[in-house]
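So, does this match?
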Amino acid sequence: RVFNNEPNVATATRAMVQTAINALGYSPNHSARSLAARESLTLGLLYDNPSPNYIHQIQRGALQSCQEAGYDLLLHPCQFGSADISGEIINLHRQGRFDGVILTPPISDMRSVLDALVEAHVPVVAIAPAEARPDIVQVMTDDERTCVAMTRALHALGHRRIGFIAGHPDHRAVGLRL
C-alpha cells in the first residue's frame, strides 16, 4: 500500500515502511507487479515515420509521461504498407507486450488498425488521425491554420517563391497543410 501510494495507511506506518524500504534498498519487481495486476504496465508507441527528429520528440514526450505514471514504453516500428499491420499490432497486445497504444501518423490514419484495436478493447491514443472518432483519444493540431500563418509570415518577410515538401499523399495532415 505504501508503494502504491494508497490513502489507507497511517502516517506512522507509512514512515516505518519507508524507513525499512530505504534501509534494505528494496524496490518492487516490475514483472511481479504486472503479473499481480494482470497488466504489463507498458504502453506501446507504434510508428512508421522516416523523420528521426519527429519520432525523437514523440518518444521523449511519451517516455516522460510513462515514467511519471509508472509505466514502461515499448517502441515498435511498423511498416505502413504491410498487408497485415492490424494483425501484427493485435498480436503484440495479445502477447501482453502493452496495455494501451500510442499511434503516430501514418499508422494513426489507418482505419483498419483503429477498428481492430477498438474491437480488441485496447486503449488508443492516436496522434493526428485521418478522421475524428468518439471511441479513441486523439491529439490533433490545426495544420491548415498553422500553415496559413507560416506562409503569411514568410510572405511578410518578402519571400515570394515558397516551396512545400508534401510528404506521403496518404497522410491526412499533408492535404490540410497544402
Remarks:
- DSSP finds seven helices and five strands in the chain.
